Every structure is written in structure tokens, then in C-alpha cells.
Amino acid sequence: MVRKKPTLVSLAEAVGVSRQTVSNVLNNPERVKAATRDRVLQAIEESGYRPSAAARQLRTRRSMDLGMRLRPAAGGISGSVLDRLLHALTEAAQDSGYRLTLYSAGDDGEEVARIEDLLHAADLDGFVLTGVHSGDPRVDWLQEHGVPFACFGRPANGPDPFAVPYPWVDVDGAAGTAAATRFLRDSGYAAVGFVGWTADSAPGEERRDGWRRAMSGYQSAGELAELQAEAEDTVEGGAGAARLLLERGAEALVCASDALALGAFAYLRSAVPGRIPAVVGFDDTPVAEAVGLSSLSPPIARAARQIIEVLSHRLSGGPEGQGPRRHLLLEPSLVVRTPRDLGRPS
Amino acid sequence: MVRKKPTLVSLAEAVGVSRQTVSNVLNNPERVKAATRDRVLQAIEESGYRPSAAARQLRTRRSMDLGMRLRPAAGGISGSVLDRLLHALTEAAQDSGYRLTLYSAGDDGEEVARIEDLLHAADLDGFVLTGVHSGDPRVDWLQEHGVPFACFGRPANGPDPFAVPYPWVDVDGAAGTAAATRFLRDSGYAAVGFVGWTADSAPGEERRDGWRRAMSGYQSAGELAELQAEAEDTVEGGAGAARLLLERGAEALVCASDALALGAFAYLRSAVPGRIPAVVGFDDTPVAEAVGLSSLSPPIARAARQIIEVLSHRLSGGPEGQGPRRHLLLEPSLVVRTPRDLGRPS
Asked: Which residue intervals define the domain HTH lacI-type in the entry (chains A, B) (predicted)?
């Protein structure tokens, strides 16, 4: 017996839902209740149904292709966060039937030119922007031309990011450092210091504010100022700041990055050999795991899903004011580790 | 005066070459002598000529789109090498007029299905494969269907990789560890040890062989066996191996990875506080730079250019037996660093 090739209609009949519901499961899964979605997906899987991407594009006039600028490898310990976003976006895009096309550009103006080229050459459906700032030429151009886009990171150096009309998702740095500070206090350390960056930046200020918020009530403003140091975002910078704060009475440290935390960690280890260094970093980079350093892990997979959901909602003509939230701050989670024992000579 | 829009013909006249030469500079630059290419490129730049990718695709019937599977972030200290390849490929592809499309897949069989989908949906021109091995279903499928592809990494676990008909580029691990070993010997260390992986792997054996080759003549086989240890690819593994080899008389260490080297480095620092640890890692990861660890840097940008050149030659119908080399082993370069001083308590 030849098995008939399944269609949207035969699948809908098999599950007992409408053809539109099956189509939504494939194209706009966020519109379908989870229970129904699971039943339809199971039926699709059992039937061997395979939607043709080309057919879908003809039907929807979408290329199902999203573009993203791949910035030069940032280097440094924290440079891997955007790479992790890229991995997560590739998977989230694919789960929703999109492809991801990469391009490079030397600056924002050049990125606009690349976006024009890609729209012309490959009819991309939308773009994922990173590093968006006030007066960003990419935002102006995309808005002017009605091209869908979503941002990783709030627009920096501008007015209230919650007031901009375009979607973004970002990591709530203040919530992260506040949680790390509370964790260290709850673990019995009274004087928790903070190591931030010398360079001004919105994420840097935010990470410091979270620490300060979690320390208010415990120390006077004057005492708090003593427990704060700033350094270049390097391992040496972290070591030097840790030395200073140790002298000033800090018992534990929350750091704005894993590079700073690694330096603080190494310094405390050699300065106070008998004691486990109480240090928390930020970004949960591979080196944090390698040396057993506690760190704040940004919810990259969740951020990537949000970006794809927002774009997918817009691209499928979903109604304004409905669909996923336009501006979303995600709390990092604290990964607590035990420092690795690298042994002493026998 | 309205300036006329430049064309291939007007550009050719301006430079004094044929129209075909200008076209080659844009589409098959490897066919044009460097001096001519530079003159044409300068004329193109001055004229503001901008080839339309869509027009080029219509003319050449190519999508100018290459696919690559983005594997899940490997994690660990060395996990960033494929991400660095991705950055380099994006730039190299763009320089040659290609785009790069990413996809994910759970295994090689699923990757074949994704490749089929992408050829159907987006008419990709070719693919970049990583992790190719003997009996690889992706290689079989692509060869059978005449789809161009190039590999990063030699095919593993099979017959002579130089005998396979498809192109690959890889890092010469043995040349790297041999150079590191010679460097340490030339720096005055007689007994250079090697820390490898417990797990069998072709890159692991190769890295050990390079060390052994550079040590032959200096030590007897028995003495050499004493200077070699194996460990899990972790920081603790490296620390434990360093402890063992130090006891056996090793004065300096070449390690198969930066994770191992970081552990060896930290152990030697605490075990022999007065002496700078003489350790060389492999892959030149961000953490090596952060802590001032010498390491072998794989020539990723060169590898990416080679992959794009090989694919571009094939896609432009370049003659077999000409064009870039089909199988290319690239030597890593040794990056010598001074260990960072993280300070001692005052």
C-alpha cells in the first residue's frame, strides 16, 4: 500500500484541528496553545510531513533569511558572549524555520551599506543588530525603509530605552550583581567589595549600581565608597584592585567581568593561601568554569529565542500590541562554583 | 556635469585592460596578476563602481551563498577555535562576494538533511564542513550530488588524507609542538616535557609526535618516556601532569592545549615561586593572552581564505589541477609571552 503524502489538510484531520492551526504551528507557533502545538508536532513527526521552505517562501513572499553582522572576534576573556548569542540565534532561527546570514562591516555606516546589499541580493526578511546606540544610522535607515529588526542590547547613551519604538532584549546587569552581592552576604561575608571598569559605560554603571543597591543598609555611603575600586578590564587590573580592596577591609568581591574576577581570584589565592577566595565574576566565560570561579551567566538562549519571536511576530503580520514583549530585560543567573585545587608540591 | 555610471567596459578602458580582466578581478581575482589586480581595484574604487550581487547571480547562476554548520558552543578553554574560524570565514567570504549561511544539526546525518533543505530553499553554492571523518555521510552525499564543499580539518580515522579527492585545510600540530620544543631548548631548558591527552585522537598523537621529533637526539627513548604525561583536557589535569613531570626532572613543558598549559602554569607558579614557569600551550585562546601564557596560534585567517579560494575556484569553473592547493597543512605560529605578575600582598 502506497502511503499518501501528508498535507496540511490531512494532518489537520488527523489531529482534529483546523488547517490554519497546523499552518500556524509551522509558521507562527507562538499563536498556538502549547498542548495543541505538541499534538500537531507529534502528528507531523509521525507522518513524515516536510514543508518545503521554497514553497513556503512563495506562499508567504518571505525569504526566511535573517541577517546579522559578525563583529571581529573581540578577544579577551569576555569576548565570547556575542559568539554564544550567535550559536543560540542559529538554533532559535532554525527552530522557527529561519536561516541566519552573516556579514561583516567596519562600522555602523558600512553596516547600512551591507544591509542594502543584502536586501537587494538576497531579499533578507530582517536583521539582528548589536551595539545599538543613540543616533544609530542603522536604526534610522531600517526604520525609514520599514525593514524589521530587533536588537541585542538596549540603545546606549540615549533617552529612556523603554520609550524607543523598536524591539530589544538585554541582560539586567544590576539584577545580576545585586544577586551576587546578596549571595556573598548570605554566605557570611559582611564587607563585599566591587571591582568595576575605569572606562565609563552603561553596563559598567549598572553592574556597580546593583552591588550598591544590595549593600545599602549594611554600610554607610562613606564605607561603601571605600569598598569600590576601578581597573582596566584585564587580569592584572583585577589583581591590583583586589589588593587595594583587601587592604581596605573587603572580605569578598563582586566583579564587573570574568577578566577582573580571574585577576582578583589569583591575587587572593596567593595573598591569603589558606582561605578560599570569595569572588564572583560576570558573563560565565569558559575560563570561569575552567578555574572554578563563580560567575553571573547571561541568559543567552532565552535572549535569542526572544529576538526570533519578536521578528517572527512582526514578519508574520502579527498585530501590534500583541505578541512577545517589545523590551525585555533578562536576569542573569548566578553559577556558584568551588575553586579548583591545583595542588601544591609534594 | 552628470558623471556617467561606470561599467565594466568603461573601467577596462580607463585601466587599459580587457573587459574580461575587470570581470575576473571581481569574480575570480586569483586568475589576475597581482599588479594588474591592484590597478583595476584602484580604478573601481575611484569610480564608485558597485557590482550588483543580484545581477551577478543572474549572470552566473550562482547564489553566492555558502553554508556552514555551527556546532553547539564547545565550551572549555579551547572551544573558541571554531568560532574564530567562523569570524574569519565571514570576512573571507565577503571579500570574495560570498555570503555565509549558518545552520545547526545534531549529527552528521541530520546535517545531510539540512544541506538538502538549504539547497532546495536557498540554492546554496557550496558548503564548509568541519569534523570530517572516514565514512562521513556528508562527504558521500555531497560528492554523489556534485555539490562543492571544502573541509576545515583533515578527514580523521581513515586512509591517507592526502589521497582523498576533496579539498581540506588543516593545522599542522606536529610542526607547532616541534617549534615550541625547539624554542624552549634554545632558551636553555634541556629536559622539555610533554603533557598530552588521555583520550586517543589524531591531533593529540600529532602534537606529541612533534615534541618527540624535536627531542630526538637529546634524550634516549627511555628518558623521553619519563618526560611525557597524559591527562584529561582540564586545568586540574594539566596541574597534576605538571606535578608528575616536575618530579621526574622536567624543566619546561609543551602542552597539547591551553587548558592543560594553564593548569601546568598555575601549578609551577605555586610550586616554584621564584622561577618563571616555562610552559607553552596550544590554540592561543583568550585565556592564554589574559594570563601571559605562551601558546601556538593556529593560522585561522589563512585557513579561512584557503577554504574560500578553493570553493571560489571550483564554483567559477576553474580548471582541475590548477588553482589553490587541494590539501593544505598550515603551521601554527608560536606566540611568546611573559607571564603576568599578579602581585603579592604588600
From this structure: 6-60
